[in-house]
Every structure is written in C-alpha cells, then in structure tokens.
Amino acid sequence: MSEIRFPVLVEKHVLNIQGGAGHGRHRGGFGVVQEYRLLADEAAFTTAINRTRVPPWGVGGGQNGTTNIMIIIREGKEILRTGKIMNFKLKKGDIVSIRSGGGAGWGDPLERDPHLVSSDVRNGFITVNEALDIYKVVLDAHTAEVDQSATDELRKGLQQTI
C-alpha cells in the first residue's frame, strides 16, 4: 500500500532473525525488518520510536529481548543509526531500514523442549552451536535431529533455581 501512495519501493519485509529474540522455555518472537527505498529526488525523514535502549526484560529466567532501531543506508553504506531524528534530508535511492526488536524469553532456556530447539535450528532462527550453548540441546550438525540421551545428560542438574 505504501508504494501506491508514496514515492517509495518496499525492498524488504522479513523477520528480524539477525536482531535476535530472548531465549527461554518460551522463546520471544522475532521483530520485523522493513526497508523502503526513496524514489523521489529528496524527502525529509522524521521518526521517534521507543525501546531503542532498554530491551524487553525476560521473565522467570528467560533472557531479555532486543531493541528497535532505524537505519539510513546511502549508496550501500550505513550513514545513520537512530531512534529519534527530525527533518533528516534523504536523497533519491536512500534506504530507510526499520528494525523492530525481538520479544523477551519466558522461563529457563534449559526447560525448552529439545524438539522445539531442533525446529528453531531447522528454521534458521538459531545455530547448532547456539542450541548447545544456550539450551544445552545436542543436535546432529547435518540433520538437526535431537540426541536425547546426550541432551538429558548435559542438562542434568543444570536447571536454574528461581
């Protein structure tokens, strides 16, 4: 709809996996990356977004989420990273990248179902190494299948006491 009403091209609308989300028994949801390329010769950009410094806090042993940010990209280079700006002059071809942060985790990451961790790896949300380091889930590096006995042994006695 933006492209119909304004001289912009929507270049990207994807989950903000790189920005991350809080780990926990229930992982926080991922934010979104939206990128708009300016098609007009020039424009003025003003923004004021929240949660740019303090991330959503984890609950019950879950890890904090991540913050929001706006980025201006000119000729392939990041020229501004901000949460608040007034009347910034954009040029034709500039990209405004809006990156919303991920939600916080709830509960001890060691209580996350290993099969959900495996699914997170298969979906590209986390790596095999993150599955091991954060969730203490042992996965086959090629198939992301859970090694349940190795996971149970690794997790034994590690759960947080809250």
Strands side by side in the biggest sheet: 1-2-7-4-5
What is the straight-line distance between the termini? 47 Å
Q: Largest sheet at a glance?
A: 5 strands, antiparallel
Q: How many helical stretches?
A: 4
Overall 3D shape:
elongated
Number of strands: 7
Rg, nearest Å? 20 Å
Helix-strand blueprint:
Layout: H1 2-5, E1 8-15, E2 32-38, E3 42-48, E4 69-74, E5 77-82, E6 84-91, E7 95-99, H2 114-122, H3 128-135, H4 148-155
Antiparallel strand pairs: 1-2, 2-7, 3-6, 4-5, 4-7
Features:
five-stranded antiparallel β-sheet; 162 residues; 7 strands; two-stranded antiparallel sheet; 18% helix; alpha+beta
Structure at a glance:
The chain has 162 residues and is an alpha+beta fold. The protein contains four helices and seven strands; from the N terminus they run αβββββββααα. The strands form two sheets. It has a five-stranded antiparallel β-sheet with strand order 1-2-7-4-5, with no helix packed on it. It has a two-stranded antiparallel ribbon with strand order 3-6.
Give an account of the 3D structure.
With 162 residues, this protein is α+β, with helices and mostly antiparallel strands. It folds into two domains: 2-99, no CATH class; 109-155, no CATH class. 18% of the residues lie in helices and 29% in strands. The chain has helices at residues 2-5, 114-122, 128-135, 148-155; strands at residues 8-15, 32-38, 42-48, 69-74, 77-82, 84-91, 95-99. The strands form two sheets. It has a five-stranded antiparallel sheet, with no helix packed on it. The protein is elongated and about 60 Å long.
